[in-house]
Fold this sequence. Notes:
Blueprint: E1 2-3, H1 11-24, E2 52-59, E3 64-68, E4 79-80, E5 92-102, E6 105-121, E7 126-128, E8 131-133, E9 138-159, E10 162-181, E11 184-206, E12 209-220, E13 228-242, E14 247-262, E15 265-281
Amino acid sequence: MTRTPAVCLSRSLLMAVVLIAGLALPAEAQYRPLPASGYGTGGGPKGEPYHVEAAFNLWNPTPDFVISSESLGIPGTDIDVQADLAIQQVKKFEFRLVLRPAKKHKFRFHYLPLTYDATTTLTADIIFNGIRYPVSTQVESKLAWKTYRIGYEWDIISRAQGFFGIILEAKYTDASIELRSPFGVEFARARAPIPALGAIGRVYIARIASITAEFTGFSLPSSIDPDYQAHYYDWDIYGTVNFTNNFGAQVGYRSLSLGYVAKQDKGDATLAGLYFGGVARF
Length: 282
């Protein structure tokens, strides 16, 4: 049996995010050389100015996922993928891209693909897609939880010592789980577009080093529609050391909480841990 529940969030919310970003981008955001004063020259910080920034990070979060899938009116068990399916913590990569047409204006893209595989013998009964898997059943599982972030950042304050800005984003989560057992193959999938708001700040503690903190989030509460809910909260703090104007290294800590409810189907994930990576600017 294959089921594909989709979290039907309002498309108008996403259109609003795009529209606000377009209106907030004044004519000065059109492409032109960035001013060099205070950036990358003299005593200014390395890495400034730039038009393109790409970062590749390795992240080692704890996979705290709980997923439930109903079928034929039979509620599913809240499946803890670590305790019930023996999914283990493994390193994952994240890709970040920033396009900066003007000093205070940035367009951001983040891609985080999380994929886990495991084989285990169940130590308790679980119900998934209306099928009961009794204790001692051998189950192969595959969990994929991919997140895309497309956003616009406006740095309200921008100085040689750092900046502070606001972020408008559209986040898209695509989650799926597959169970293989002697009973067959069962599959469930949920996709949730979620708009988000947030803020970011950076301080240069030295010419070659900075500390950055950002938060983005959104919640669709049950008071709007108890059958469809979604939330996304993302905290990120990291330090960067720029060896040259074009290349640097990063180390940070990220905490990500996201989830959805689609009638009797639901999924929740909490991911947190250190990451390391490199950044290139041009």
